[in-house]
Amino acid sequence: MLNPVNRHARLAALHKLWAGQESALSRDALHGLLAHAAAWSDWPLVHAVGSRLAARSELAAEETLHLIDACRALGKGAEAHALASALVGRQPQHAELANDIGAWLAWRQRFPVPGTGAELALEPLAHHHARDFAWQYSDPAIAALCCLPVFADALDWHRWLAELWRQGRRLLFAVLHREWGFIGCVNLTLHRDLGFFYYWLGRDFQGHGFGPRAGQLLLDMGERAYGLRSCYAKAFDTNLRSRRGLDRMGFADLGMRGAGDDGNQVFYRRGPEQGRRRTVEELHGLLESMDASVRPARPSARRHADTLAACVRR
């Protein structure tokens, strides 16, 4: 049984095998490696091995489907479409697959092209990422710390994703690592020139700086393509790793907590300097527009007077 707990260790062993014996692997070993990589959704390895077999004209039709899945998961749209079109020429029953890929490519054109880093790239989260998402989201701490849904099943996830894109206000991107593929998500909810940001990574990829680097790619795109001026975020006060990540992306702790039972959540802001009163009003307005369940605590009358005085001094 494939278990998310030991998945990364299994993948590391496969990668070591490929890196150490790539040129010496027999044809049967290559086919076996491709099958294992596909079963574990290791799309970078599927792409590497599948491309090697394809170059030798040794890729079977069912293995071509694995290579197409890898291309889609890694955002290699043109390659996926070319492979699917060639496959339809040999097996017309796959015409629907080629049409689906064409529709996905047309949908992707709605988004600006995000920047890429040395190891990371962003790709709009799509329905074909369902299994990749599930592998990394398997740790229940992710949903709890990020205040995200607990999905009943795959259909529940697909409905959630469709609704997010239908709303038209979110930029939800998969974080793709050059060696490991899908490792998490970054999200930016937009309202005029304001944004609200969150990110999460799978357990095996936390603590390596990937989150801030991926977040920076998304925030840069928001500023460049959508006129993002000011962005807010929040984290649980005990989630020191996430809070350090926000610091690295240029977010500043506002010294504001959630109201009532949400007092263990801390708000952050990134943007040009402005008065405290404007920040408070801006954040309240943004969360109200998002219909967010968490709102910042209102300052006491004394504290509000001090805030106004500070704004005047500015």
Provide a compact summary of the structure.
By secondary structure, this protein is α+β, with helices and mostly antiparallel strands.
What is the SS-derived class?
alpha+beta
Instruction: Tell me the Rg in angstroms.
Output: 22 Å
Question: Under the CATH scheme, which class of the largest domain?
Answer: Alpha Beta
Q: Architecture of the largest domain, CATH level 2?
A: 3-Layer(aba) Sandwich
Name the helicity range. 40-55%
What is the makeup of the main sheet?
7 strands, mixed
Order of helices and strands: HHHHHHEHHHEEEHEHEEHH
DSSP helical segment count = 13
Question: What is the third-level CATH name, the topology of the largest domain?
Answer: Aminopeptidase
What's the shape? elongated
User: Hey, roughly how much beta strand do the residues contain?
Assistant: 15-25%
Any low-confidence stretches, pLDDT <50, length ≥5? 300-314
Describe the secondary-structure layout.
Elements: H1 7-21, H2 27-39, H3 43-55, H4 61-73, H5 77-90, H6 95-108, E1 120-124, H7 130-136, H8 140-146, H9 154-167, E2 170-177, E3 181-191, E4 194-201, H10 210-226, E5 230-236, H11 240-248, E6 252-257, E7 265-270, H12 276-290, H13 301-313
Parallel strand pairs: 4-5
Antiparallel strand pairs: 1-2, 2-3, 3-4, 5-7, 6-7
Structural notes for this entry:
- It is a single chain.
- By secondary structure, the chain is an alpha+beta fold.
- It has two domains: 4-108, Serine Threonine Protein Phosphatase 5, Tetratricopeptide repeat, CATH 1.25.40; 120-313, Aminopeptidase, CATH 3.40.630.30.
- The protein is 52% helix and 16% strand.
- The chain has 13 helices and seven strands.
- Strands 1-2-3-4-5-7-6 form a seven-stranded mixed β-sheet, sandwiched between helices.
- α2 (27-39) runs antiparallel to α3.
- The longest helix has 17 residues, at 210-226.
